[in-house]
Specification:
Layout lengths: L2 H48 L6 H27 L5 H10 L1 H7 L1 H15 L8 E4 L2 E8 L3 E6 L4 E5 H6 L2 E3 L5 E11 L4 H14 L11 E8 L2 E11 L5 H19 L9 E2 L11 H8 L1
Antiparallel strand pairs: 1-2, 1-5, 2-3, 3-4, 6-8, 6-9, 7-8
């Protein structure tokens, strides 16, 4: 048996088949280019039509993404039919039926994140621009795609989380309501007039800059005895659509300190503890700030 002759015949046959299929491959490539152009144009048209509606930004992104996806699927099927004459969509479905289990395992994460992305975009709780805490990451939602969610951390870094992590995990939406509650703990020397201290702090909270008064209460509670002091908890509300929580807390600290000093109430040394949000720097205690300025 002449193996060289057989090998040569095989190579010649493959070369002739490739040359014969070149026109089909060129046409398929043209179809792909046209598909890219049509998908881009359709996305722009959809953006123009739904741009002035009251839909959520995530839902607008979902509509544009699905339009591009359907156009690409249709274009790829046409290109595959042209490039491979024996190819049919029915044959593709039959082939997937044979290896559906293997494909399912191979693309499990992709399908999972895809479905989670669609559900995230459809529900109206988390929106583009919301401040969230998810999987230990705190920041602002910049973009939601069909596979991942982009969160810009408050410190400036961009974190990309899989949609399945957002959808299945515990996600805290910090800006779901514009008004948020903040709190602070103080230790008051136990030899002072504690009722006077409570009343002074309550009045100061009501008049402090940035503290919401209408429809919200300002709470001051004595919580427990400490060594030589009594621990108080102060709680108030801030409208984050107008004011920064950390700035309001700093103003509250300054106002509380001045009011207590005027009333003759002494703070226990090192008594202030901050209940600030994760990732945010606490405002300086007035005494520490004064020492730093000196």
């Amino acid at each position: 048996m002449d193996y060289l002759t057989i090998l040569r015949n095989q190579v010649v046959g493959m070369t002739e088949a490739m040359i014969a299929s070149l026109p089909n491959l060129v046409i398929a490539a043209v179809v792909l280019v046209l598909t890219w152009g049509v998908a881009k144009l359709a996305s722009r048209i959809a953006k123009r039509f739904i741009g002035h509606t009251h839909m959520r930004e995530a839902l607008k992104q979902l509509i544009r993404t699905l339009i591009r996806l359907f156009i690409w699927i249709f274009g790829l099927l046409i290109a595959a039919t042209i490039a491979v004459p024996g190819f049919t969509p029915a044959g593709l479905i039959a082939g997937l039926g044979v290896g559906a289990l293997a494909v399912g395992f191979a693309f499990q994460d992709i399908f999972q994140n895809f479905l989670a992305g669609v559900l995230i975009m459809l529900r109206d709780k988390m929106r583009i621009g919301d401040n969230v805490e998810a999987d230990g990451v705190s920041g602002k939602v910049e973009r939601v795609t069909l596979r991942e969610t982009h969160i810009r951390q408050f410190s400036g870094e961009l974190t990309i989380l899989p949609n399945a992590t957002i959808f299945k995990g515990n996600t805290k939406i910090l800006t779901d309501q514009p008004q948020r509650r903040d709190d602070m703990t103080l230790l008051i020397n136990d030899d002072c007039d504690l009722r006077l201290a409570e009343e002074t702090m309550r009045k100061t909270l009501k008049s402090a800059k940035g503290v919401v008064v209408d429809g919200r209460t300002q709470d001051v509670y004595a919580q427990a005895f400490e060594t030589g002091s009594v621990r108080f908890v102060l709680r108030w509300w801030v409208d984050t659509s107008h004011d920064d929580m950390q700035r309001v807390k700093a103003d509250v600290i300054y106002a509380i300190k001045d009011a207590l000093e005027e009333a003759g109430v002494e703070l226990n040394d090192g008594s202030v503890t901050y209940a600030y949000k994760e990732g945010a720097e606490p405002p300086p205690f007035p005494r520490e700030q004064a020492d730093a300025d000196q």
